[in-house]
């Protein structure tokens, strides 16, 4: 069986913790592990192979977290990279096209939490039996309260009668009372060939455009890349709309597995450990007459006085304060930031790249200061900038620097200056991390002022 792991989504309801380039599945919230890593742990014991569907921007985040664990690293794993998102139906279809028709596939999001792994494995076993018979199996989560933020599955035994959109409160209460309605988990199990056959019948345009895109794929080092233009041509649709709501082969396995989609700060609060006053545990939190709060922040001390039922999230460059119960509205903050053309919805102060990371120390009109760390054996792209000059100072490690036709070495406390327009590259040929301070000076210091002339990681050239 192959585990298809879907790594899409931007997690706008968990801003400022989650950003477009660091979505919630990669944030290490649970005993220094991310939801993505917990998904790997949960499924490698029951699946022989991993097929991870990711955006090109998040590929290296996923790869780094996979390689942090020796067990993950040695498991049979393949990445399928989407240059632009087209929703779950195309993502799953492209992944299934990379497999044999009879292969059982377990489709799981990368950003869900499952606490009862024993019951989870029992549910998987039931679903496998149904899938071998040619069914498309979905997992219905036994509801514990009248949730309005999830879609519902109406069942008659193992047969799916209907899928229902997110209900209002009164309808959700009726669903809960009826006893045959389940939360739609977004997890599935079926044969790859059966899914593709049903997709071809019920959404022929998606099937045809996915097939055309897959036939022109490129494969290198267990990484499948889809061409941007062919990906854009695929209609965007969810697996529910494209197949599950139309197929006559759908079954549901009721699952009481301690599931959470961690889709809001309210649901995150329920999953995190708490102190005796009901505050989430945080060594940087000083609580005076405060209880039942979610407090997140590791960079600064957070003091609360007389605070109850609140959410406080501090990430260094942004602060969120909300009442518990209102966190579904956080996505409106992201919408407002995007309307203002702010980068706060997309990036943190620390950004991750395939070669390492950078942290913005100061950003003011006319200049920006960064701390850059380059992993051993890695190098940045050969590049140039139009609007900024750069001054590099080596803090630790040894830097190999190329500027135009000259290549030279910089040791700690040594520096160099790169003028706007000059072609340059930074490389770490050593065995220890390279740390430099970069001071950018110019009329524009945005991250998109870059032209990549050569790149080891096949990113876009500009």
What do you see in this structure?
Keywords: GTP-binding, Isomerase, Nucleotide-binding, Nucleotidyltransferase, Transferase. It is an enzyme of class 2 (transferase). It catalyses: alpha-D-mannose 1-phosphate + GTP + H(+) = GDP-alpha-D-mannose + diphosphate. Its EC number is 2.7.7.13. The protein has 462 residues and is an alpha+beta fold. The protein has twelve helices and 31 strands. It has three domains: 259 residues, Spore Coat Polysaccharide Biosynthesis Protein SpsA, Chain A (Alpha-Beta Complex), CATH 3.90.550.10; 65 residues, no CATH class; 105 residues, Jelly Rolls (Sandwich), CATH 2.60.120. The chain is 24% helix and 34% strand. The longest helix has 16 residues. The two termini are 39 Å apart. The model has no long low-confidence stretch (mean pLDDT 94).
At the fourth level of CATH, the homologous superfamily of the largest domain is: Spore Coat Polysaccharide Biosynthesis Protein SpsA, Chain A
Number of strands: 31
What CATH calls the topology of the largest domain is: Spore Coat Polysaccharide Biosynthesis Protein SpsA, Chain A
Shape descriptor reads globular
């Amino acid at each position: 069986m192959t585990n298809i792991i879907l790594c899409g989504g931007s997690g706008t309801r968990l801003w400022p913790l989650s950003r477009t380039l660091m979505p919630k599945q990669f944030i290490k919230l649970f005993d220094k592990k991310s939801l993505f890593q917990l998904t790997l742990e949960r499924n490698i014991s029951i699946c022989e192979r991993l097929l991870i569907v990711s955006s090109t921007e998040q590929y290296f985040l996923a790869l780094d977290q996979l390689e942090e664990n020796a067990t993950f690293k040695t498991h049979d794993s393949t990445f399928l990279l989407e240059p632009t998102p087209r929703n779950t139906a195309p993502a799953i279809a492209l992944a299934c096209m990379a497999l044999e028709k009879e292969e059982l596939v377990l489709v799981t999001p990368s950003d869900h939490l499952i606490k009862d792994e024993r019951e989870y494995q029992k549910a998987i076993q039931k679903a496998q039996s149904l899938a071998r018979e040619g069914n498309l199996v979905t997992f219905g989560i036994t509801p514990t309260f009248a949730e309005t933020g999830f879609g519902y599955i109406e069942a008659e035994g193992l047969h799916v009668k209907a899928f229902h959109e997110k209900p209002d409160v009164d309808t959700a209460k009726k669903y809960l009372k009826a006893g045959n309605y389940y939360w739609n988990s977004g997890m599935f199990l079926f044969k790859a060939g059966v899914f593709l056959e049903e997709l071809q019948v019920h959404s022929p345009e998606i099937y045809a455009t996915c097939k055309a895109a897959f036939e022109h794929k490129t494969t290198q080092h267990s990484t499948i890349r889809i061409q941007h233009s062919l990906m854009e041509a695929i209609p965007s649709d969810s697996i529910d709309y494209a197949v599950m709501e139309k197929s006559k082969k759908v079954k549901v396995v009721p699952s009481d597995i301690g599931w959470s989609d961690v889709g809001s700060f309210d649901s995150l609060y329920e999953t995190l450990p708490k102190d005796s006053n009901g505050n989430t545990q945080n060594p940087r939190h000083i609580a005076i007459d405060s209880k039942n709060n979610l407090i997140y922040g590791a960079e600064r001390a957070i003091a609360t006085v007389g605070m109850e039922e609140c959410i406080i999230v501090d990430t260094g460059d942004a602060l969120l304060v909300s009442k518990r119960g209102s966190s579904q509205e956080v996505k409106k903050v992201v919408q407002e930031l995007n309307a203002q053309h702010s980068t706060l919805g997309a990036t943190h102060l620390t950004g991750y790249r395939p070669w390492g990371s950078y942290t913005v120390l100061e950003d003011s009109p006319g200049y920006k200061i960064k701390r850059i760390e380059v992993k051993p054996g890695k190098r940045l792209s050969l590049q140039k900038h139009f609007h900024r000059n750069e001054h590099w100072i080596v803090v630790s490690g040894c830097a190999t620097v190329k500027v135009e036709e000259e290549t030279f070495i910089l040791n700690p406390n040594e520096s160099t200056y790169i003028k706007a327009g000059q072609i340059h590259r930074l490389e770490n040929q050593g065995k220890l991390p390279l740390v430099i301070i970069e001071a950018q000076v110019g009329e524009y210091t945005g991250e998109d002022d870059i032209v990549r002339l050569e790149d080891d990681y096949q990113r876009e050239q500009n």
